[in-house]
Write a structure and sequence with these properties.
Structural class: alpha+beta
Number of domains: 2
Number of helices: 10
Shape: globular
Order of helices and strands: HEEEEEEEEEHHHHHHHHH
Distance between the termini: 18 Å
Strand content: 15-25%
Helix content: 40-55%
CATH topology of the largest domain: Jelly Rolls
Length: about 270
């Protein structure tokens, strides 16, 4: 799994780019991806005076509002609740860039298991969304133009992420340690010590920049690794649980199902679930 920052330096291709103009005037919720999951990755720029709450099947929620740029991963199962206070809303409340990313071998790239708030100042990207929209909805649509504008938009977003990553990393040492030692139960206090700060301050910074607490971040890495091991076959659920850092197989199964939607044994039989 790559981060948005790492994607900036990777060799990838954008497939099936599309720009959707969305309006929520007649609806306060959307449940279309609750069972099947998103078929595309997405970057959503919220342009209207609305509040959007993305709720995953394990109870985790991410909230976006006007000018937020939100990344929505492929395969994500979630519902959306929309709230607004204005008596009348503009015709369009968000711009949604749908796409599929593939690496140099044609494999789909995974960037996250949950929605990410890429920027609280997404207005800076609106002109690139609008140009892509014009290319997508032109009377004589040219895929060359559509893909060129899709790459242009994504380049500006990823460049922004790289710049932000340089600002965020008083906690870099802790994040990098988690990425390398995700199957170890390192206390958060030790991660804070690596960064030269108190545990309380480390947790606050981690939540601000990662959108979740350190334990949740480690758990998502572990479950992603477990999915790969189960897909490959040759290991029992107990062996996979131990390999990814869970001492209790039953607890591993509960956590796995809460995030993936099915138990590890079911996933092993049908990895595409």
């Amino acid at each position: 799994m790559l981060t948005l920052e790492e994607l900036y330096y990777a060799d990838f291709e954008i497939m099936e780019p599309e720009l959707v103009l969305q309006s929520w005037n007649d609806s306060h919720s959307y449940t279309g991806y609750q069972c099947s999951g998103r078929p595309y990755d997405g970057l959503m720029l919220i342009t209207g005076d609305i509040r959007m709450e993305f709720s995953m099947i394990d109870g985790v929620t991410v909230t976006g509002a006007k000018n937020d740029l939100v990344y929505l991963p492929m395969g994500l199962r979630y519902t959306v609740r929309i709230e607004w206070e204005a008596a009348a809303l503009p015709r369009i409340q968000d711009l949604l860039f749908n796409f599929i990313l593939r690496d140099e071998n044609g494999q789909a790239l995974s960037l996250s298991d949950i929605p990410l708030i890429v920027s609280r100042d997404g207005e800076r990207f609106e002109k690139y969304f609008q140009v892509l929209s014009a290319a997508c909805h032109a009377p004589k649509r040219s895929m060359v133009c559509v893909k060129a504008e899709a790459y242009r938009l994504l380049r500006h977003v990823l460049s922004f992420c790289v710049g932000e990553s340089e600002k965020r990393y008083p906690i870099r040492a802790g994040v990098e340690y988690l990425k390398l030692h995700w199957n170890e139960n390192t206390p958060v206090s030790e991660l804070a010590t690596l960064c030269g700060m108190s545990e309380c301050y480390f947790r606050r910074l981690f939540g601000k920049f990662a959108g979740m607490n350190p334990v949740r971040y480690r758990t998502l890495i572990r479950i992603s690794a477990a999915k790969s091991m189960l897909s490959a076959g040759g290991m029992s659920v107990v062996e996979v649980a131990e390999a990814v850092g869970f001492e209790d197989c039953f607890y591993f199964s509960r956590v796995f199902k809460s995030i993936v939607g099915v138990s590890p044994s079911v996933y092993a039989r049908n990895p595409q679930k």
